[in-house]
Specification:
Lambda Exonuclease, Chain A; 2 domains; four-stranded mixed beta sheet
Length: about 325
Amino acid sequence: MIQETSRKTSQEITTFELIPKPRHGSEDWLRLRWRDSLGRCTFGASDAPALMGASPYSTRSDLFYDKSVDPTVEDDKPVFRRGNVLEPALLEEASYLLGVRVFTPSVMYRAGRFTISKDGVDNEERPTIGVEAKTSARYSVHTADDLPFEWRWQGWAQQSVLNVPLFFIVLDRDLRISMVELPRNQEAIDQLWTEAERFGALVDSGARADAEINQFSAEQITSLYKPTPTSIELPESARGVIANLREARESRRQAEAQESIAKDELARLLLANEVGLLDGEQVITWKQHAGKQALDSKRLRTELPDVYETFLKIGDPFRVMRAK
């Protein structure tokens, strides 16, 4: 059930929604950050850095693509796993430093085009502070000036929804635990909301040719566009791109041929030996590994066709690009 709580910002009186939070990272959780109840594109706070061009990991094109296709659950990466394991301890330290109990709420907060999850709050329904727990092998954090802009945009997105002071509790690359408050920047928040509305409306419109999202990879375009048996006149600039494709493929073919020649020559030198030395130093190895296990699908299809059909899995269609 969705509850609404009034809040007062420096600009106007607005409301945010309290939404029961599914398991963090689940498909249901992703969908709440993907579309609102009206079917409009929405963003999580972690989308804000990419939205504002400040993410070292994701571009605006990546974000547009992610918001244009159904969300998918990602594998649990080590960096995410590390954060999840250490987050409770960091929130406990934040509670000690702030002198108030900080806990992970069982709800998500939505206002405008943002649906945010909080690592820590002091009150689930009416937070007066927010805490974001971070572990980093990249940054050293002593003061608010050390907060990278990717974190700042995430924090400003959270402040824009809850309008409360936000603290970062950080285990940094020097294994130092620091807690710093993110200064509120209303100008940045206004820019963020303006861009969220513009970008979200673009996604809602189904547009595909906007200059800012015209950097899709071939894989992304395959997912977004269903091929049709039609032709299109390419611009003259495509001539050079096609030449580059041919050159790249020829270079790869030559490299593979050179690799094969080099491996043959080294094999004739090694013979039964597994290790090759130069001046007593190991420079090459050629060791035997156990053979790979593979299902004899041809035999299975012949001898047990019903079983074969039951477990047959057909992959997604794919497109092949050939330069004529």
